[in-house]
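Q: Start with the shorter request: fold the first protein.
A: Done. Sequence, then structure:
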Amino acid sequence: MIMLNIFWIIRLRIFRLYIWMRRISIYLFQGKKGRSKKGNRSICIATGSKGSNIHLIRCIGNIGLIHHEIRRGSFKKPEAMEFIRNCLRKAQNNYASHVVMVIDNASCHGSIEEVFKENEFENHRLLRLEPYSPMLNDIEYTWSHLKSSVKKDLAIEIPNILAGEGKVDMAQTEFRLQQLENIIKRNISVITVSNCARNVAHVQRFKPYVLNMENVTF
C-alpha cells in the first residue's frame, strides 16, 4: 500500500517547481547475468570488486536537468547535505521559485531535513516518498535511460580503456576513472527537457491511486 500524507500533497501545490533527487554509482565493470546448466549450482568466480566507480548525483524536474555533480569516493550524509544546498541555490537563482524536493529513503538522505531548517532554505520543502514506491519517483525512469546510454558507450570503449590507450604518465586507476567520467559527461545530454516532462507525466497516472489509498501495481 502506498501511503503519502494527503495534507502535504494539497499544501505543496502552492509551490511551482518540483525536483527529484537521486544518487547512483556507475562502475567500469558492469555485473553479468546468466543461467547455470541443469543440475549445477549457479556459481560465478569473479573479482571481489567492480573496479573504479563514480557517483553521479542529480536533480531533475519537468523543466529538465536542474543540477548534477560527478564525485569520487564515498557519498554519505555530509556530502548529500552539501549537494542539496548547491541544488537549492541553483534552482532558486535560475528559476526564482520555491522548490519541493522529492527524495527516497536512501541511507545518505538521513539528515536532509536539517538543510530545510536553515534560514537560507526555509521557504523550500522536502517530500519523502514512502518505501517501495519507485513508481512515484520520476528520476527512476530518467536514470534508466541514462544508464542504458552509458552502458552502450562502455561496451564500445572498454577494450581501449583496459589497454590504456592514451595513458601518459598516469596511474592506471586515475586513467580509468577519468575515462569513466568522460563517458558520463558525454551522456548527460540524454537527459532532455522533453524526456523529463514525459517521465513526470507518466508518474501522474499513479496519483489517483495514491490519493485513494489504493494498492499500486508497478
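Q: Next, the second protein, separately.
A: Sequence, then structure:
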Amino acid sequence: MNLESEFSYSGQKTEQSESKTLKTAETIDEFPEGPVLVVLGSGWRAEQELGLNIDSKARVLAAGELFQEGGIAGIVFTGGKLAGENRNSLAYDLWSYCHRKFPDIEGKSILLEKESKDTSEDAEFVKEKILDRERPVILLTSEFHLSRAQKLFEKFNVDVTAGVAAERILKGKSPHYQAFFNKHEKSLKMKSERIKEAILRGLIYIDPKGSIPRRLAHRRGKS
C-alpha cells in the first residue's frame, strides 16, 4: 500500500452517500459469541469531501486486520452526523471505508452507533443502545486517545477487556506503516492532540462522565 497516497489529502473523496446504505447487522444478537471490537471514529479532514482523517483511517485499517486474524465476534463503529443532518454519519463512513479495504468482511459482522458526538457519548450509547447484555469489549482507537477512552468506557460500566492502539497494530504489520506513523507522531498536529488529551484526562477527576468535553463536542465536532 502506498501510505503517502492513502493518507494524503490529494484525491481522497468522502464515502458513498448513506442513502445507498451498505447492509449491517440489526442487533448485536446477530453476532456469534465472543468479544466485540468497538472502533471509535475520529472525524473527517477539514473538508468532509476530502474523506476521513488519518486517525479514522488508521483505526479502520487496524480493525480490519484484527478481525481477519479471528476471535472477534463483530465490529461496532461509532460516530454521529457531526457534519450536519444532511451528511453521512461518521460510523457509516468508517464502515464504507472498511468495506472498500476489506471486502471480505460481511455486513452481518458490523453494527453502527450513529448518534454519538464525543467519546463519552461513544461509551454511553454503546452501553445503552448496542450491548444487550454483558459482553467483553476490545476498545480500538488512537494511542493518544486510548487512556481517556478506556476510563470513560469503564465509567459507563462497559466491560473493556483490552484497549488497542491502531498505530501499534499497523506498525506490526509492515515497516512501511512503522515509518509512516513514526513520522506522523512527530507532527505538530499530534503534539497538539496529546496536549489536549492530557487536559481532558485531568478533567475526568472532576467530571467523571465527560459532560464538559461533551458540550464542547456538540459545538465543534468529534474528538
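Q: Describe the second briefly.
A: The beta strands are 36-40, 74-78, 110-113, 137-141, 160-165. The CA atoms of residues 1 and 174 lie 10 Å apart.
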